[in-house]
Design goal:
The structure holds two protein chains of two kinds.
Chain A (H helix, E strand, L loop, with lengths): L2 H23 L9 E7 L2 E2 L6 E2 L8 E3 L5 E7 L6 E5 L3 E2 L3 H10 L4 E9 L5 E5 L1 E5 L7 E7 L10 E6 L5 E6 L6 E9 L2 E11 L5 E6 L2 E6 L9 E6 L5 E13 L6 E14 L4 E3 L9 E8 L5 E8 L5 H5 L12 E8 L4 E9 L1 H4 L2 E7 L5 E7 L12 E6 L5 E3 L9 E6 L5 E6 L8 E6 L10 E2 L14 E8 L7 H9 L4 E2 L1 E2 L29 H16 L3 H13 L9 H13 L8 H21 L3 H24 L3 H17 L3 H15 L11
Parallel strand pairs in A: 1-9, 3-10, 17-35, 21-36
Antiparallel strand pairs in A: 2-4, 4-7, 5-6, 5-8, 8-9, 8-10, 11-12, 11-34, 12-13, 14-15, 15-16, 16-17, 18-19, 19-20, 20-21, 22-23, 23-24, 24-25, 26-27, 27-28, 28-29, 30-31, 31-32, 32-33
Chain B lengths: L1 H31 L2 H4 L21 H8 L4 H12 L6 H23 L11 H12 L4 H21 L5 H19 L3 H15 L3 H22 L3 H6 L7 H14 L18 H31 L2 H12 L7 H19 L2 H14 L3 H10 L9 H11 L3 H4 L23 H8 L2 H15 L3 H13 L3 H11 L6 H13 L7 H9 L10 H11 L4 H13 L3 H6 L14 H14 L12 H16 L4 H11 L4 H7 L7
Helix pairs in contact in B: 1-5, 1-15, 3-4, 4-7, 5-6, 5-7, 6-13, 6-15, 7-8, 7-9, 8-9, 8-10, 9-10, 9-13, 16-17, 17-18, 20-21, 21-22, 22-23, 23-24, 26-27, 29-30, 31-32
The chains are: A alpha+beta, B mainly alpha.
Chain lengths: 694, 651
């Protein structure tokens, strides 16, 4: 080594030593003494102010959203030694040890943050003290959640993780693995105890399976049986740790053209119960009514009741096969029900309604009962059973003793709140909320007082104060557990990838016979109408008079004639059709609301379409068939107008498009042009109105 | 005098080497253009090779993803360097620098090995790298890793000349070997082999050299157990030679993205010939070169003096060379000729075509894109590129008059649903049309499938600004601000969002808001979707032209006729050629003249349609003859597509 090299090394060492000495022996930094009062609290992100925090939570690192060149934070409470945090950037990172000591010394006390910011001109500014309350009750030590991108259809890199709430340590429980195409979901524990747990996987080359974990040993179960073609989801463990209730659901994923994009529709769902000892699946009519959709089972802590959500099925069963979306999907609203269960005999009780959607006006989802059995936490959205995609989804509490329910004002936001869970001691709840940006779900913890009221929630803290600013994954299904999961990632992966699934078998249980599917098709010919005397002449005469009156713009008179024409013969008679069409048109499109009759317009238009279609298809005379076909475009146009008048714009647009195609096929270019103009109205949700003669 | 001559020779040699690399740089920049790779992620080349361009953002979280596996550091470095491909100067500079360094280290090793006569070998690595670059499927990590190994080997040889004690030399080898293995993964073997052979053959320290090779073969096994990777990965990753997993996923992706046998022209250009072996071959040659050099360099002095057959032949050959040893200028000319030959012969022209077209489409250089597409037969391009062709035709105002000059089918306008992700440019297309929610849906799926790519983050940020969700937009912009290439754009957007959270003064955002649907609909068909857009804003020219194109493609000539009046909404006083053909065809079928709103159809079009109808009648039932006749008379007409379902063979 040359002399110059040696000199360089010595110089470097000297500088490093000087720096260390300066740090050790330099003046101790204190709170700025000369400052100006800002007169308001500092803006911090995440908003950790006026919250109630668990005494065993990891430091709530945050970013001070005030411009400055230096930041000082004084942290103190009633007891114990406070501490200072200095930083030249706005990210405040608390020393973990001091934080822990301070919180543990002050259970039930207050935690204060004094924020000082040195402005660029060199002057310190002191902001008003930010205060949080330290709860005397601890939260469970661990949290298990899913992390995934805001995906809808495809999965490539998602996973289930467990997080130590006292530190920032996060470890993967079951990452799906890139390119595996596997969805991992619905991790569930028995009373917050991870010794008995299950989680589910779908997709990937292994297919759907339930992973049952008992005492750190995983078993793969195929929950599809002769009863249910879909695998298990939304599991809930009975307190005995032997039975697990689950839902079997058929879904269609779709997205909206305007507003919130992604959505999920559940075609059909039933509830089943899995018995771990016998590897059997069973169901009873109370849990699998063919005319209703049952989902989100949850056991009461004493195991005597199974609570769940249930909604009437408003569409044909065939849609499940076609995976189509019924147009009345927004009317699907779920009730909260329960059914008794006797663990000693295995007998099920009667179905009991707990809270009905007709009383709340909203769809009830995801019931979870507090460990003491007094309260039931649930969420409600405008429709359906996928609250994570509904902005309207908010959290509510119901007192199971009084039946009174209330919205948890302190914890709801304008965006979705869902996937909630109770702590072991019943003093904390955790849930996922999209409140920060409307897109990404984040985990919040909220203190619940003995009256069932929740306090302002705390965002799950992260080591990096800027963590949430650019983190492009959702957190969902946060589940609190008392200790870490005893099984490792490798064992779980091995159970999925290498072991053969054990096929659960359906254990026959008495089940109500399926009732015939409810006829919901609009406009089905009503065969129970009283028979009427056929009077063809009257029908034709009144129709002609009606036409004359209509031409002369005497609409009310025309309506009367058309009505007489329709009523003079049975409605399904061909003679009634021309008047029915005209009448439907007037009822659907007349500018005066006194004349319009939306429901009757639709009924008549559907009736006329069925009649004309029948004639066009099966009339013996070819000329009659051709004439009927020629009237179809106009009739479909009327039907579209009737749909639009009833607010069913999507059906209106589809029918009008059909009418336009028919008109063009028959060379009725002018009619096609008119229909096209009306189409534009239906696409912007506006009905068509006949121009007023005046 | 001698010294001066030597110096002058060295200077001249240096100048000529610099000139060579200047040419090298010019070639990489002008002909290869790494920008094409930057925009080519998930692109399947005609050979079936699949491009997976690395993602890289600043930050410790991203770095940690690499730090936990052998070879992760070099992959991280490669990912960083690859981001500079977006720059027209820096990308070529990096690739040239790589070639230059490979040459320098090889030269250094040869000289340290005591074989100055073999210095000509130093031009091997740049030429081999050129072959690799010419294949367009290289990953930078595969080139950087051997370079790092070479550098370490040069360091070892240099140090070992001063330190003679075997234990010290062993430590000097073993420690860097372990560190190098962690940094570059499998290619560290190159370092080990070079050092081992240097000791074995050059210094004749058989025990030491043998122990090097033994230790080197064991390190990956140790790595496999430490880092939980398979033995194959531990030895070969990320060499690019052993790429079983990549081949599988490439095949999987290619099948998804490009159906077998499909190309723009309907021929089998991309018929599942997954070209991983070809890709590996050039890399394998690159590695093999160094292994051979490692053996040859220590042997060369002995070969030269042993009078072996090789040297005898070399001497014989030298007799035919008039000047004895070639001058630097001659050397330079030979090298330049060799490089030109390599560049000319090994360039994957079909890949270049597709990459260039894709690049032009991604940067929305539409006229240049069409020019590129028209240079070569349509069958040279993959099927999904028809979406870009139609977009380019729209952007250049030719969709209604030239679309049937290209091979069209019912699916060539746009894609809906999650499949949107598989078609490059479809998210942008949906956004430009005004289908903001569909674009959002597709981009979110893309985020999952292709990762946090800057183009996806950019679209998502725009979508959420348009949808009045600035907080969500900020999350994506903050993510994007850590991207090397897009950081400036993202920071500018963030700043503007601070000033005006809804960006009310941004014309692009305002335009998108003015055309996005305000009323909800679920699972609409393409026709309903486009009609809804026109109902929202009749002046949405793109929606109108795509609607008309949809009607043309689905042979609904009547609907084209019915919607001619909409041209008024976009202020178009003329009737584009294909619309005119459709109107005349419909008019002929129904016998009723359409309402053209005062517009007129040219006599030539009228006659063309009349003739096409006559031909259709004449060849009724004989589709092939009809197509032949129509192709001969009106190859790019809508009539031909209408009657035969074919178009675009002329290209």
């Amino acid at each position: 080594m040359s002399i110059s090299h040696r000199a360089g090394v010595l110089c470097g060492l000297a500088v490093a030593a000087a720096a260390v000495l300066c740090c050790l022996l330099g003046p101790r930094r204190t709170v700025p003494e000369n400052y100006a009062d800002a007169g308001r609290p500092a803006e911090i992100d995440p908003d950790y102010s006026n919250c109630t925090i668990p005494p065993n939570i990891a430091p709530l690192n945050f970013v001070v959203k005030e411009t400055g060149s230096d930041y000082c934070l004084r942290v103190y409470s009633q007891r114990g030694e406070g501490f200072l945090v200095f930083n030249s950037t706005a990210g405040i990172v608390f020393p973990a040890k001091k934080w822990k000591t301070l919180l543990e010394s002050n259970p039930g006390g207050e935690l204060h943050f004094d924020v000082y910011v040195r402005r660029t001109e060199g002057r310190w500014l002191r902001f008003d003290t930010i205060t949080n309350r330290i709860s005397p009750e601890r939260v469970d030590s661990y949290l298990v959640y899913r992390r995934l991108k805001p995906v809808h259809n495809v999965f490539r890199s998602m996973g289930t993780y467990q997080r130590n709430l006292s530190t920032y340590e996060e470890s993967p429980l079951l990452p799906s693995g890139r390119d595996s195409g596997r969805c991992v979901n619905c991790h569930t524990f028995t009373n917050n105890d991870p010794d008995t747990m299950c989680l589910h996987t779908r997709g990937g080359k292994e297919g759907a399976a339930m992973l049952l974990v008992k005492d750190a040993k995983a078993t793969k179960i195929n929950t599809r049986t002769s009863f249910n073609s879909s695998p298990a989801a939304y599991t809930s463990w009975h307190p005995n740790g032997r039975l697990a209730a689950f839902a079997v659901i058929e879904v269609v994923q779709f997205h909206h053209a305007a507003g919130n994009s992604d959505d999920v529709f559940v075609h059909a769902s039933d509830l089943c119960v899995y018995d771990r000892d016998s590897n059997g699946v069973s169901s009873v009519p109370q849990l699998s009514d063919p005319d209703r959709l049952e989902t989100f089972p949850t056991w009461s802590p004493d195991g005597k009741y199974l609570y769940f959500c249930s909604a009437p099925r408003l569409w044909e069963k065939g849609l499940i096969r076609k995976r189509e979306l019924p147009l009345n999907y927004r009317q699907a609203r779920y009730d909260l029900m329960r059914v008794g269960y006797d663990d000693s005999t295995g007998a099920w009780g009667e179905l009991e309604p707990v809270l009905l959607s007709q009383d709340t006006g909203l769809s009830i989802n995801e019931p979870r009962i507090s460990p003491d059995g007094r309260f039931l936490l649930f969420c409600m959205a405008d429709y359906g059973c996928f609250p994570v995609f509904r902005e309207s989804s908010d959290l509510y509490m119901i007192c199971l003793e009084t039946g009174r329910y209330w919205r948890l004002e302190n914890i709801n936001s304008r965006y979705s709140e869902s996937w909630h869970c109770w702590s072991t001691n019943g003093r904390w709840i955790t849930f996922a909320s999209k409140r920060r940006d409307g897109l990404f779900g984040r985990v919040y913890l909220s203190y619940v007082d003995p009256h069932g009221d929740a306090r302002k929630p705390v965002l799950l803290p992260q080591q990096d104060p800027n963590f949430y600013a650019a983190f492009l994954e959702n957190f969902n299904v946060p589940e609190l557990i008392a200790k870490p999961v005893g099984i490792g990632r490798a064992e779980l992966l091995r159970a999925i990838e290498e072991s053969e699934a054990s096929d659960a078998r359906f254990v026959d249980a008495p089940r109500a016979s399926e009732t015939a599917a409810r006829e919901t098709a609009p406009g089905k010919p009503q065969t129970d109408l009283p028979p009427r005397t056929s009077d063809l002449e009257t029908a034709q005469r009144e129709f002609s008079r009606g036409q004359a009156s209509e031409k002369a713009s005497r609409i009310e008179e025309a309506v009367k004639h058309y009505l007489r024409s329709v009523q003079s013969v049975p409605e399904h008679e061909p003679a009634a059709i021309p008047a029915a069409i005209r009448l439907a048109r007037i009822y659907a499109t007349h500018p005066s609301p006194e004349v319009r009759n939306a429901e009757e317009a639709l009924r008549l238009a559907i009736l006329a379409r069925q009649g004309v279609a029948l004639i066009a298809r099966s009339a013996p005379d070819q000329r009659v068939r051709r004439d009927s076909q020629a009237t179809l475009p106009g009739l479909m146009d009327t039907l579209a107008a009737a749909y639009a008048e009833n607010g069913r714009f999507l059906e209106a647009a589809k029918t009008a498009l059909e009418a336009e195609t028919m008109a063009l096929d028959q060379g009725q270019l002018e009619l096609a042009g008119e229909i096209r103009d009306r189409l534009d109205l239906y696409f912007i949700n506006r009905p068509y109105r006949t121009p007023s003669p005046n | 005098m001698n010294r001066r001559t030597t110096d002058r020779g060295a200077i001249l040699s240096g100048i000529l080497t610099a000139t060579f690399f200047l040419f090298y740089y010019s070639y990489v920049r002008a002909c290869l253009d790494p920008r094409m790779l930057y925009h080519a992620n998930d692109l399947v080349l005609p050979s079936g090779q699949w491009i997976e361009f690395p993602i890289c953002v600043w930050g410790t979280a991203f770095f940690k993803e690499f730090a936990g596996r052998p070879g992760g550091l070099i992959q991280y470095l490669a990912a960083i360097c690859s981001q500079f491909y977006h720059d027209p100067c820096l990308g070529p500079l990096i690739l040239t620098l790589l070639a230059c360094l490979a040459s320098i280290f090889t030269d250094r090793l040869i000289r340290l090995g005591g074989s100055p006569g073999m210095r000509w070998l130093r031009y091997g690595p740049p030429l081999l790298l050129l072959i690799t670059y010419n294949r367009y499927t290289f990953l930078l990590e595969n080139c950087l890793a051997p370079l790092a190994a070479l550098m370490a080997a040069a360091g070892y040889v240099l140090a070992s000349k001063r330190l003679q004690a075997a234990p010290i030399r062993f430590v000097l080898f073993a420690l860097p070997a372990a560190v190098l293995y962690y940094a570059v993964g499998g290619p560290f073997l190159l370092f080990a082999v070079w050092c081992g052979l240097y000791e074995l053959l050059g210094r004749r320290r058989y025990f030491l050299g043998g122990s090097y090779l033994l230790v080197a073969s064991g390190i990956p096994l140790l790595g496999a157990s430490l880092f939980h990777v398979t033995a194959a990965e531990a030895y070969f990753s990320p060499s690019g030679i052993f790429s079983f997993e990549r081949t599988v996923s490439a095949a999987y992706s290619a099948e998804r993205v490009m159906p077998k046998g499909s190309s723009l022209g309907g021929h089998g250009a991309g018929s599942g010939l997954f070209g991983e072996p070809a890709k590996s071959a050039s890399l394998a040659a690159f590695y093999l070169f160094f292994f051979l050099a490692a053996a040859l360099v220590p042997l060369a002095p002995r070969l030269a003096t042993s009078g072996s057959v090789v040297t005898a032949w070399a001497k014989k050959l030298a007799r035919y060379y008039p000047g004895g040893k070639p001058t630097p200028l001659q050397e330079f000319l030979i090298l330049l000729t060799a490089a030109a030959c390599v560049a000319w012969c090994t360039l994957d022209a079909s890949a270049h075509k597709v990459l260039r077209a894709n690049y032009l489409a991604r940067v929305e250089a539409w006229p240049e894109f069409l020019e590129q597409i028209e240079k070569h037969p349509s069958s040279d391009y993959p099927a999904y590129m028809i979406l870009d062709v139609n977009r380019a035709l729209f952007e250049t105002g030719q969709l209604g008059s030239k679309m049937f000059a290209y091979p069209q089918n019912r699916d060539s306008l746009l894609r809906q649903g999650w499949q949107t992700v598989l078609y490059k440019g479809n998210c942008e297309l949906l956004l430009r049309l005004g289908r903001v929610n569909e674009a959002e849906h597709a981009a979110l799926e893309a985020l999952e499938i292709t990762g946090e790519r800057p183009e996806t983050l950019r679209i998502l940020a725009t979508v959420y600004i348009v949808k009045h969700q600035p907080e969500a937009a900020r999350v994506f912009l903050r993510g994007l601000s850590r991207d090397i290439a897009q950081a400036a754009w993202a920071r500018d957007r963030l700043r503007r969002l601070e000033e005006d959270p809804l960006l009310t003064s941004d014309p692009e955002i305002q335009h998108l808001r003015s055309i996005m649907p305000e009323t909800d609909a679920v699972t609409p068909s393409q026709e309903e979707m486009l009609l809804a857009l026109l109902a929202r804003n009749p002046g949405n020219r793109m929606a109108l032209e795509y609607l008309m194109a949809y009607y043309l493609l689905t042979k609904q000539a009547g609907k084209v006729a019915c919607n001619i009046g909409r041209l008024e909404d976009v202020g178009d006083p003329t009737i584009p050629e294909h619309y005119a053909e459709a109107v005349l065809l419909y008019s002929n079928a129904t016998g009723r003249p359409p309402d053209l709103g005062g517009r007129s159809i040219g006599q030539r079009t009228v006659e063309q349609v009349r003739e096409a109808i006559r031909l259709a009648r004449e060849y009724q039932g004989d589709a092939e003859s009809l197509d032949r006749a129509l192709r001969a008379g009106f190859p790019n007409s809508y009539c031909r597509y209408f009657f035969t379902g074919r178009s675009g063979d002329a290209r």
